């Protein structure tokens, strides 16, 4: 009983067609079928958030979605953040704030933050803490992750205000 | 772990879903509905649940009534695929605002963005916030089966231990909340933020100014199904001032005395009883406006 299904979905802007067994999770399709191993898999039951990706813009645990449910969906993974080898502002903020150590949880935190900041550009530090509580990190103690996301939110707001001139997080308070 | 194998069937409308459930069952399958999947998938990855077929309601998100939040002046109707997050961010009338405020207790943001109200009710976890809210606000679950539609009131919905009155060949199409509660609150305690509650409590006060004329007290985590506590509601019905600590204490004591909570080495019955007392008192004060609800 493997009941193969043809699945079409968009991942990081590229359309893909994959033949999958229904029990294959979106996380496993991303990693094994599409070889996008930036998405990490931790607990496989929705607790740790390491596998967080954006599905139609919303942060989603890729281990809690069967790939067949993502038919026609627009998925973004951590591989979508850097452009032409340049890390995104959010990724740079993670580095600058020591928001990662071993890095296993980082792709999940990045995609969670990316989704939250897109939906709530005016998120306060408390909003950010509440949203980031969805994911687990065993290295950092979380404060530095909150710092990094808060700084990114701040610099994006300042950039918006100043009219396209990028404002670095260092000049944000 | 990985879920056991199953066959996958996409439903294109409610009738299609009912037909698939009926046909699969007739063929000897053990079909189950998946909507948001945020409760079902963890159970499947642990292989606590091993349905041989899944009927996916996902495509029904295109049916406007399935994701609609409607208020007709008295009743709040939620389409079966309305997510927790949609309720959290909706502008709800005062009588139902407690629903939006309670959403902060439901899992975490990514879970709330996918998980559905109806799915949570049909899953029937004894600590699920929606199950308590259903009893608090007299929810009516509208289910469609091979014989047509029927309405199941919340007080007949929960059979305990994840069993509900919704039959295996029925699809929930709508959940209606029929009892507005402008003075209501839900609170809970879990060892980690976002985990399943050990105990949760919801209180709705009927107020005339600050005079209590009655109300509801609902508890989760103290019995196989969420329960109303008539002994505590009797204290509210006897009346008093909502701001009076003695009244709040009497309600909380009555609730703690009335229950027969489960007892296990990690969480003893005594502990659950103490949690119940604290949480009922907090919920009473939050409902009366004398205690601020924790900010997200």
Automatic annotation (TrEMBL), chain A:
Pfam families hit by this protein: Fer2, Fer2_2
Residues covered by the 2Fe-2S ferredoxin-type domain: 5-81
Keyword Electron transport attached: no
Keyword Iron-sulfur among UniProt keywords: yes
Superkingdom of the source species: Bacteria
Alphabetized UniProt keyword annotations: 2Fe-2S, Iron, Iron-sulfur, Metal-binding, Oxidoreductase
PANTHER family: OXIDOREDUCTASE WITH IRON-SULFUR SUBUNIT, XANTHINE DEHYDROGENASE IRON-SULFUR-BINDING SUBUNIT XDHC-RELATED
Name listed for the protein in its UniProt record: (2Fe-2S)-binding protein
UniProt organism field: Actinomycetospora lemnae
Lineage per the UniProt record: Bacteria, Bacillati, Actinomycetota, Actinomycetes, Pseudonocardiales
TrEMBL record, chain B:
A Pfam match: FAD_binding_5
Record keywords, A-Z: FAD, Flavoprotein, Oxidoreductase
Highest taxon listed in the record's lineage: Bacteria
Protein name: FAD binding domain-containing protein
Residue intervals of the FAD-binding PCMH-type domain: 1-182
